[in-house]
Amino acid sequence: MPGMFDAHVHLREPGFENKETIASGSEAAINGGITGLVMMPNTSPAIDSGTVVARVLEIARSTARIPVHSSGCVTKGRHGKELSGIDGMRALGVKMLTDDGDTTADPAVLYRAMQYATEFGMFFASHCEVPELAGPRALNEGAMSYRLGIKGSPACAEEIIIDRDIRLAHAAGAHIHIQHVSSKLGMETIRWWKHRGDVKVTAEVAPHHLLFSEDDIGDFDTHYKMNPPLRTRADNAALLEGLLDGTFDLIATDHAPHTPFEKSQDFVSAPNGITGLDTALVSLHHHFVATGKFGWDLIVKRYSAEPRRLMGLPVVSITEGQPVDLILFDPDKETTFTTEFMKSKSRNTPFLDQTLKGGVDLVVLGGNVLLDRA
Ligand SMILES: [Zn+2]
After folding, report:
1. Does the chain have fewer CB atoms within 10 Å around its N or its C terminus?
2. Residues contacting 255, CB < 8 A, separation 6+
3. What are the backbone angles phi and psi of residue 234, rounded to the nearest 5°?
């Protein structure tokens, strides 16, 4: 198959190198059959100017064995007030603007950014969440939050901003990409707008929102704590439906590494997110391809072709005369996600020490063998 491409990755460098670096994160990607990725700008300092982008790309060029693309903030420091250095970032090839981790709370600021940056062919990626409704962002508001006695974040906190940001893009003539959709009504909102056909909207779904629900939190397991939170089994089913019918253009992991110490805190204090690069492809194979829910064609389209198209990159195919960018996947083998196996610096994943069907055997990029387990 062609190499996968992940359009939603937190590499934590600069600023949080104890969680991940551009080098370790890109090795985790290779380990999982991914040959290109887009990093999110919620680093420290935040990636909000040409100066920071230049530095990040320089680190990527010298330490990563796959292409690492950087997104840029919508607002300076991700504070939601002033526009970031959009011009300087565009000059260095930044295409995606996002305050991911947070919503750009002030619609007037986002609207102005859309009117400005759209002229330069840039697009917006939205983390959707009304901050006032989201509470401590620990889990979904529902049966599990009542049982555990923690204030939950209702699905409407996400759905309101999905609709708001698509409406803003509609008015500004901008391209809006909705990140990590977690709820049925959120999916249906995107489907409705796509059906209208008069706004450029794309959307992504993460493997964990397809696979897990609030029920998996069990006894305060922080490996099931992410933002947006895991919702219900009915949401899982609706998200899968949205992936099958094309409401979701792409699969993206929202790879979010954290140290064991941080994740060992109590459920409310522990940070949001799980890693995904090492595990995404094998887990999609195990739970969906091996069970006949969808085929490899969907994975190649949604996890290789469409994310590259989103970034304005050529779609990779295995064709004579084309540059080599391919992986070999063995569906008959098994992968155990031990600490030794995973290349991410962090191990915050529900798949830790699980054995799943399938394995990445070989990764070849531009004539270089990046991984060979064959
Ligand atoms: Zn996010």
Report:
1. C
2. 6, 8, 9, 10, 25, 28, 275, 276, 277, 344
3. -65, -35
pLDDT of residue 225: 96
Q: How close is the Cα of 226 to the center of ligand 1, in Å?
A: 9
> Hey, which residues are catalytic here?
254
Q: Tell me: the pLDDT tens digits for 226-266?
A: 999 999 999 999 999 999 999 999 999 999 999 999 999 99
Q: Which domains are present in the chain?
A: 4-372 (3.20.20.140)
Give the pLDDT of residue 189. Answer: 98
d(CA 185, CA 140) in angstroms, rounded, equals: 14
Helix (H, G, I), strand (E, B) or coil at 236: helix
Helix ranges (H only) for the chain are 22-31, 50-63, 86-91, 107-117, 131-134, 143-148, 155-172, 184-196, 207-211, 233-244, 260-263, 280-284, 296-300, 306-310
Burial of 350: CB neighbours in 10 Å, binned 0-12, 13-18, 19+: middle
pLDDT value at position 374? 83
Q: How far is the CA of 295 from the centre of ligand 1 (A)?
A: 27
**Tokens standing for 82?**
């002033």
